[in-house]
């Protein structure tokens, strides 16, 4: 339960084996790549190494990006029309096994088929949109049975479709009657009138004046049939197009079997793009390729065996593993057992430890379990968590991150049930037995919360002291750790001896320990500082930090507050439903109590998760943990749609 020891692997191989080795590395997922060109050129001072086939790689990358874009568009299109697409099973295959099942000729056929549907649907959609626009333009003219364009062939007549405001209707009609041979009102709305006007060719200028004077809108009619016929034809065509579109959508909606092959193809393409990116980190020298990276020490031997076993040629490949140096930026890989591993996400949310630093995950796990359980504290809620997480964990389609999160809450369900038994709470109902009553023993629970806080602070200070002793910084370990432990323990003994047990010996022991520790906090900076005055000031200022410890202890009272509030709310919900009449209680009441308890479970778990993490990050980690490490990121497939099994 610590940080994995790292080694730097260097592989020197013939160029012809480069792609094969990269595929093996990507499949094994245990090497974090290092920029070999930069590192080797810095190491040898003069530039002797170049990037491999840069132009060729970029051209290949462009082609793959185009293919990936086509696949992505196809998947997006299918996802719109397929209500519930199938999901890939996670961690059932290695990447190499996965790629063997791919047939890119079939994938191309699928892409062409999807593209065909997409183009047809787009063409139909565009035509539907166009027809709808035309229908809207003709809506007011749909009752006109005469084709306005027939007058174009006449030597003496002209016609026009106009609409105008009703405010100019009377005046306009008087003017039009002076020269028009036909004025037919086609449609009239609340504010405008739509009319078909026929007039003599010689009066065309008069008509233009009316258009300008009265603000008439002249419609440019571009059809060869009467508006009524065109309108009916367009509506018929619209119905036909909608049916055609529905047929395409119906056909696409049944193509569930196309989704997973396309997802698999995208994974393969993304993996190849990543290999091209990695090639830019490789160095070449004559006919050789140099690959460098970080690997966990306990996986180095199996990695070498796997690589050599999968290389089919007899060409020599040199592989070396070197210890880390203090000047190198070594990544951090956490290594914990099955119980502690789910809690690594809490550490990562704060900060990873630097390589060589202590992994705080095993040290926060027991405290987080106790605190989380204390803040939820209900047997029923814990049982629901356990059953729910057990059922969810059986799903093979869950991604790795979700599975780890579920594992975390599966573990946390146990302390929730234990504290539920201690508080005697089952879905807010009081059990016939309990150790502490949330309603009667509030002071005891408050003291217990502070005691847990005191224990965690002492553990944090002890860890810090041990780390400083290992660094042989003995005086600093006294002033920043052991002396503060003495103050806290002394304060506890003072309270016990003076108030609780009324024991003078205990009281005096606590007072002596408190005073000696306080003096050490002030004295040590004076010893380590060249200027005694500055050292004294620094020591006094450090001692002022005792107020921070008081604040830290007060912060732990949330363990009591959240635990009691969650149980009280659950009890209030039960009481609310209990007051209902029998008929309502066993009908609406059942649904209501389920909804209310579901809400309370969600809020209780959320509060416990957030506040439990906050106590670790601020009160606990602040005593010994610095962080700032860089996560170990092995070269692997993108895993956009699926998590691959890793053979270790």
From TrEMBL:
<keyword id="KW-0812">Transmembrane</keyword>
<feature type="transmembrane region" description="Helical">
    <location>
        <begin position="367"/>
        <end position="393"/>
    </location>
</feature>
<protein>
    <submittedName>
        <fullName>V-type ATP synthase subunit I</fullName>
    </submittedName>
</protein>
<keyword id="KW-0472">Membrane</keyword>
<dbReference type="GO" id="GO:0033179">
    <property type="term" value="C:proton-transporting V-type ATPase, V0 domain"/>
</dbReference>
<keyword id="KW-0175">Coiled coil</keyword>
<feature type="transmembrane region" description="Helical">
    <location>
        <begin position="405"/>
        <end position="426"/>
    </location>
</feature>
<dbReference type="GO" id="GO:0007035">
    <property type="term" value="P:vacuolar acidification"/>
</dbReference>
<comment type="similarity">
    <text>Belongs to the V-ATPase 116 kDa subunit family.</text>
</comment>
<keyword id="KW-0813">Transport</keyword>
<feature type="coiled-coil region">
    <location>
        <begin position="107"/>
        <end position="134"/>
    </location>
</feature>
<feature type="transmembrane region" description="Helical">
    <location>
        <begin position="507"/>
        <end position="527"/>
    </location>
</feature>
<feature type="transmembrane region" description="Helical">
    <location>
        <begin position="481"/>
        <end position="501"/>
    </location>
</feature>
<keyword id="KW-1133">Transmembrane helix</keyword>
<keyword id="KW-0406">Ion transport</keyword>
<dbReference type="GO" id="GO:0046961">
    <property type="term" value="F:proton-transporting ATPase activity, rotational mechanism"/>
</dbReference>
<feature type="transmembrane region" description="Helical">
    <location>
        <begin position="586"/>
        <end position="610"/>
    </location>
</feature>
<dbReference type="GO" id="GO:0051117">
    <property type="term" value="F:ATPase binding"/>
</dbReference>
<dbReference type="GO" id="GO:0016471">
    <property type="term" value="C:vacuolar proton-transporting V-type ATPase complex"/>
</dbReference>
<dbReference type="Pfam" id="PF01496">
    <property type="entry name" value="V_ATPase_I"/>
</dbReference>
<feature type="transmembrane region" description="Helical">
    <location>
        <begin position="446"/>
        <end position="469"/>
    </location>
</feature>
<dbReference type="InterPro" id="IPR002490">
    <property type="entry name" value="V-ATPase_116kDa_su"/>
</dbReference>
């Amino acid at each position: 339960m610590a940080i994995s020891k790292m080694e730097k692997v260097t592989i020197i191989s013939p160029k012809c084996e480069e792609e094969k080795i990269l595929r093996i590395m990507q499949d094994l997922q245990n090497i974090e790549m290092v920029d070999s060109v930069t590192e080797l050129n810095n190491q040898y001072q003069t530039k002797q190494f170049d990037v491999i086939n840069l132009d060729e790689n970029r051209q290949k990358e462009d082609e793959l990006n185009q293919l990936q874009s086509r696949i992505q568009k196809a998947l997006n299109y299918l996802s719109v029309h397929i209500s519930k697409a199938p999901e890939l099973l996670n961690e059932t295959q290695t990447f190499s096994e996965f790629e063997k099942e791919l047939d890119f000729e079939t994938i191309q056929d699928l892409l062409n088929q999807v593209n065909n549907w997409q183009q047809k649907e787009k063409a139909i959609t565009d035509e539907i949109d166009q027809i709808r626009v035309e229908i809207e333009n003709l809506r007011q003219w749909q009752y006109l049975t005469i084709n306005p364009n027939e007058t174009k062939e006449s030597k003496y007549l002209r016609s026009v479709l106009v609409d105008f405001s009703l405010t100019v209707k009377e005046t306009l009609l008087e003017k039009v009657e002076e020269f028009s041979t036909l004025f037919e009102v086609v449609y009239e709305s609340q504010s405008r009138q739509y009319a078909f006007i026929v007039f003599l060719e010689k009066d065309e200028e008069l008509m233009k004046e009316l258009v300008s004077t009265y603000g008439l809108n002249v419609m440019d009619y571009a059809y060869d049939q009467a508006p009524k016929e065109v309108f009916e034809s367009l509506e018929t065509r619209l119905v036909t197009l909608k049916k055609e579109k529905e047929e395409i959508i119906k056909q696409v909606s049944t193509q569930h079997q196309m989704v997973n092959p396309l997802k698999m193809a995208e994974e393969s393409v993304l993996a190849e793009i990543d290999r091209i990116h990695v090639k830019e980190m490789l160095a070449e020298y004559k006919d050789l390729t140099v690959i460098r990276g970080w690997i966990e020490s306990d996986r180095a031997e199996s990695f070498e065996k796997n690589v050599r076993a999968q290389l089919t040629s007899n060409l020599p490949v040199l592989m070396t593993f070197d210890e880390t140096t203090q000047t190198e930026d070594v990544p951090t890989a956490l290594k914990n057992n099955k119980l502690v591993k789910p809690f690594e996400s809490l550490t990562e949310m704060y900060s990873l430890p630097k390589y060589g630093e202590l992994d705080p995950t095993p040290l926060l796990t027991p405290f987080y379990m106790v605190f989380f359980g204390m803040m939820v504290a209900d047997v029923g809620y814990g049982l629901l968590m356990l059953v729910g997480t057990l059922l969810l964990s059986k799903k093979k389609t869950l991604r790795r991150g979700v599975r780890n999160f579920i594992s975390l809450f599966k573990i946390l369900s146990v302390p929730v049930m234990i504290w539920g038994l201690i508080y005697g709470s089952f879905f807010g109902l009081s059990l016939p037995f309990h150790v502490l009553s949330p309603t009667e023993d509030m002071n005891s629970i408050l003291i217990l919360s502070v005691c847990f806080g005191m224990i965690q602070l002492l553990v944090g200070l002890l860890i810090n002291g041990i780390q400083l002793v290992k660094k042989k910084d003995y005086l600093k370990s006294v002033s920043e750790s052991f002396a503060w432990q003495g103050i806290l323990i002394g304060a506890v003994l003072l309270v016990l001896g003076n108030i609780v047990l009324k024991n003078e010996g205990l009281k005096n022991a606590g007072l002596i320990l408190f005073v000696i520790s306080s003096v050490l906090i002030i004295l040590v900076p004076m010893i380590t500082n060249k200027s005694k005055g500055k050292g004294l000031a620094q020591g006094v200022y450090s001692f002022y930090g005792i107020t921070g410890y008081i604040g830290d202890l007060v912060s732990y009272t949330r363990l009591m507050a959240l635990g009691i509030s969650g149980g009280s709310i659950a009890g209030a919900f039960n009481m609310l439903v209990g007051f209902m009449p029998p008929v309502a209680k066993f009908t609406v009441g059942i649904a209501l109590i389920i909804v209310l308890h579901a809400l309370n479970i969600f809020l209780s778990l959320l509060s416990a998760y957030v506040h439990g993490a906050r106590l670790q990050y601020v009160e606990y980690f602040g005593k010994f943990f610095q962080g700032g490490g860089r996560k170990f990121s092995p070269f692997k497939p993108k895993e956009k749609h699926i998590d691959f099994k890793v053979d270790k």
